[in-house]
Amino acid sequence: MKSDRLLEVDYNREDGMVIHVRPGAMRVLPKESVQHWRSANKEMLLAFRSILDSVIERVGPEEAKEQGPSSKRVVVTEDSAS
């Protein structure tokens, strides 16, 4: 039964790998594993923050003036992310 699974990995060549960990799995995993899992989650968030910071830096002063100081929207396109 699928709901009994604590961990599930989906992989395909287009989307990559997705790991699903059910919340109940954390209760049965060794303490060290949970600590590593939390550290890995933090590192992924820090990596995402770094990506966002990079995109924010690409917004030039001219664009910032046009948008005004109250605007918080940043549009990321495939061209601007590379």
Describe this structure in words.
With about 80 residues, the chain is an alpha+beta fold. It has one domain (about 1-80). Helices cover about 50% and strands about 15% of the residues. The protein has four helices and two strands. It has helices spanning about 25-30, 30-60, 60-65, 80; strands spanning about 5-10, 15-20. A two-stranded antiparallel ribbon has the order 1-2. The model has no long low-confidence stretch (mean pLDDT about 80).
Arithmetic mean of pLDDT: 79
Structural class: alpha+beta
Number of extended strands: 2
| Low-pLDDT stretches | none
The structural domain count equals: 1
Q: How helical, in percent, are the residues?
A: 40-55%
What Rg, in angstroms, do the CA atoms define? 19 Å
Strand portion: 5-15%
Described by strand count, sense and barrel closure, the largest sheet is: 2 strands, antiparallel
C-alpha geometry: elongated
Question: What brief labels describe this structure?
Answer:
single chain; 82 residues; alpha+beta; two-stranded antiparallel sheet; 4 helices; 2 strands
Give a quick precis of the structure.
With about 80 residues, this protein is an alpha+beta fold. It contains four helices and two strands, in the order ββαααα. It has one domain (about 1-80).
What topology does this entry show?
Elements: E1 7-12, E2 16-21, H1 25-28, H2 31-58, H3 61-67, H4 78-81
Antiparallel strand pairs: 1-2
